[in-house]
Amino acid sequence: MMPLLITQGDPAGIGPEIIVRAFEQGDLAGCVVVGDVAVMRRAGSPMTAVIDSPLDLLQVPPGCLPLVVPEGLAPGLAALPQGSIDARNGAAAAACIEYAVRAVQAGRGRAIVTAPIHKEALAAAGVPYPGHTEMLQALAARPGQPVPPVRMMLANDELRVVLVTIHVSLRKAIEALDFDAVLDTVRIAHAAAAAWGQVRPRIAVAGLNPHAGEGGLFGDEELRFIGPAVRAAAAEALDVSGPFAPDTVFMRARRGEFDIVVAMTHDHGLIPVKYLGVEQGVNVTLGLPFVRTSPDHGTAFDIAGRGLADPASLVAAVRMARQLAGAADQEGRRAAD
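The structure corresponding to this sequence follows.
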């Protein structure tokens, strides 16, 4: 079976050390890390086996961390101070992501799990994407083809929340909302769940305003385009309902009434999931032609290199990547029969 690929993230953050800790705990069986040898050793990896391709995983001796080193990494990354922004680290993080995407596209990897990157380091390196989601979206596009529409989902064992808008100011997020954005998000959430084998997921759409606008008393977005988008999706035979009051819909989903909640803005959707425990949250990019997950936290520069980082969210991301990739494989075989 093809391996899962784990990108090391920003070398100055906690990504390398949570990878090493997860490996030492025995949670990375069947995984290959994409990163820098010296950075992984600084993070505590006692034995590192550098391989030419992820497909060489079976050649790695027991107890050794399997590592693929992409071309173009700056020399001396491990000598740079941890917990600080550096363009060389941003460029290295981007190179690892690009390698992982190309490897999966070429059939040398099953799914991608990305350790945290730092957006300012990416920008300092001249990377033209604000974060993982946008970079993966661009890399996933085939030559001459448009970029695939993608959405961010944050999930744990109790909630799965898909966002219509992500990393923009609240004012810009509200301005970006419209009928097409909501309808496309519902469609992407449905298609992703179907690819995992959940043929008819129950999707709840959260409103934007208090009490979902209360019939227009507290805002009319629900009347103008959120409600119409829900009805349009339902007309396509999707099991979708709403818009529901944002302050109660997540509780209803947690109790089992819905499988997925679509939220209008970043904090509307992510606060409920993160409140249940950052260590169990997993970020999933929907709409890509491959499975990609990541931990539900950032680079944590304040504790990088201090031995305090908890690998639980990374382990959860690896576990979910295995589950989603396995379900997608099973669904693909079922469709082929």
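Residues 157-272 form a domain with the Isopropylmalate Dehydrogenase fold (CATH 3.40.718.10).
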